[in-house]
Design a protein that fits this description.
The protein is built from 13 helices and 14 strands. The chain has 475 residues and is of the alpha+beta class. The chain has 2 domains: 177 residues, Chloramphenicol acetyltransferase-like domain (Chloramphenicol Acetyltransferase); 239 residues, Chloramphenicol Acetyltransferase. The strands form 3 sheets. The chain has a 6-stranded mixed sheet with strand order 8-14-13-11-9-10. Strands 5-6-7-2-12 form a 5-stranded mixed sheet. A 3-stranded antiparallel sheet has the order 1-4-3, with no helix packed on it. The longest helix is centred in the last third of the chain and has 39 residues. It is globular and about 65 Å long. The termini are far apart.
């Protein structure tokens, strides 16, 4: 016990992540990676020391999770941990070989995962590519932190780094411990939350799925075969979307959720749809919560009714009111919401999720103050317990990224979904007063064109195959 600083229960979201991680342990669920290049006059020792200081400051980075032999799992804060730091020198390799090695390293790192009962659940790799170019990789388990917290951690790291290279001593204000958030959660009125969610999900009995010919179960294949596709809107279109939100007093998040609801309705044929939305969890009435580090986000069921005769803008405003209603109960454990719903036990409430990043990591890093170097080429990897999830990154050009289980969705389908997304958002800009039935007709037209293009592609592939077989016969 001399090595233990503190221990306390898990948040409901942590409990859910722990359950899914353990139930599919070989697939390394909820393993996260962040990477970037560092270019310029960079001091590796000071960078390492900055990380060491941040690990000492933030309890959550010294936390492990114990469950065996206990009535309920607990998280254990250790007094000290050895920084898992590796430095590699690839300066003697050609650029192509460096990239091949990097991809192999990233994949091997993902497969390694973490032992949740052992600290720390983080590790760092710094690879020197040239005299002034480095690749940095930070791997960690989602039980520790969400994207907002990761931004705060990186901000603190570079503040310490800047101080160290100037020979200064920096003492940042100690962040409020994560256990205070756990205590706040335990004080919330779940009876009131139950009443809200029972009404919210009343008479909703079947998951809204993009998959038409596949049986939905509580656990998908999870074979680890995940792919990503993305689409980036033009600067002009993004600016027009921002202008629309200001004119109509809407948020960009509302526009995106409305677009996703319409896509789900189009694919499922239903006008009452439910999908998961990621809430930051930072609206809690807890002082200093915006600067706390840990796992605060929650995944909640957003229910949307498509009303064909309604105008687009009034419908979106109605959706925004519903978002605000739901936000009051964003502390609610998803596992309890599931029990309070009319969806049969053993089936999920949803199998797609949407995450509008309201604190984009790359924006936070880009706005940081760095001494004689720059950060670039940000990338991230995450594996979560859903067959498809959508991430929206705001900025000068809105980026929509879909990560999907390739056993459930094919590349053409996901590409079609992204084009639908773009089409709907562009229509919102050009025809904000359109009715939903007219908007759905435009979507159906896009679907038809995509289907024709797909059939043409298949026809060409069959013809090419036939030609090859014929050529082989002749020879």
């Amino acid at each position: 016990m001399n090595t233990i600083e503190d221990f306390y229960p898990l948040s409901p979201m942590q409990q859910g992540i722990l359950f899914h991680t353990l139930s599919a342990s070989k697939f390394k669920m909820y393993f996260l990676q962040f990477g970037c290049t560092i270019c310029g006059d960079f001091h590796t020792l000071e960078f390492k020391n900055a990380w060491q200081r941040v690990v000492e400051e933030y309890q959550i980075l010294r936390t492990s999770f114990i469950w065996e032999g206990l009535k309920e799992p607990v998280q254990v804060v250790h007094r000290e941990v050895k920084l898992p730091w590796e430095e590699l020198d690839w300066r003697g390799l050609e650029s192509q070989e460096q990239q091949e090695r990097l991809q192999a390293f990233i994949k091997a790192d993902q497969e390694q995962g973490f032992e949740l009962a052992q600290v720390p659940l983080i590790r760092f790799t710094l690879i020197q590519l040239t005299e002034k170019d480095y690749q940095f990789i930070w791997s960690y388990h989602h039980l520790l932190a969400d994207a907002w917290s990761a931004s705060l951690i990186l901000k603190a790291v570079f503040e310490y780094y800047n101080a160290f290279i100037q020979g200064k001593e920096l003492n940042l204000e100690n962040p409020r411990p994560y256990r205070d958030y756990i205590a706040w959660l335990q004080q919330q009125d779940l009876l009131k939350a139950e009443m809200f969610w029972r009404q919210w999900l009343k008479n909703f009995t079947a998951v809204t799925s993009l998959r038409k010919d596949q049986k939905i179960s509580s656990v998908d294949s999870q074979d680890g075969s995940y792919n990503q596709q993305f689409i980036q809107l033009s600067t002009a279109t993004t600016a027009k979307l921002q202008s629309l939100t200001q004119q109509q007093q809407l948020t960009l998040n509302t526009l995106v959720q409305g677009a996703w609801a319409l896509i789900l309705s189009s694919y499922s044929g239903k006008e009452d749809v439910v999908f998961g939305v990621i809430c930051s969890g930072r609206s809690a009435t807890l002082p200093e919560i915006d600067s706390m580090v840990g796992l605060f986000f929650n995944t909640l069921p957003m229910r949307v009714h498509i009303e064909p005769e309604k105008g687009l803008v009034p419908w979106l405003k109605q959706l925004q009111v519903k978002q605000a209603e739901m936000q009051q109960y964003e502390f609610s454990p998803l596992v309890k919401i599931q029990r309070w719903s009319d969806v049969p036990l053993g089936l999920p409430l949803f199998d797609t999720t949407l995450n509008f990043h309201n604190y984009p990591l790359d924006v936070a890093l880009r706005e940081g103050q760095y001494q004689n170097f720059k950060l670039d080429n940000y990338w991230s990897f995450a594996k979560v317990n859903y067959p498809l999830w959508v991430e929206i990154f705001s900025g000068q050009q809105l980026l929509i990224r879909i990560t999907y289980d390739s056993c459930c969705f094919d590349t053409d389908m996901v590409n079609g979904i992204l084009k639908q997304f773009e089409s709907i958002l562009c229509t919102m800009v050009t025809q904000p007063h359109i009715k939903l039935d007219a908007l759905k007709a435009i979507m159906n037209e896009v679907n038809k064109k995509q289907q024709i293009a797909k059939e043409e592609k298949l026809k060409e592939a069959r013809l090419e195959k036939f030609k090859k077989l014929k050529k082989q016969k002749v020879s």
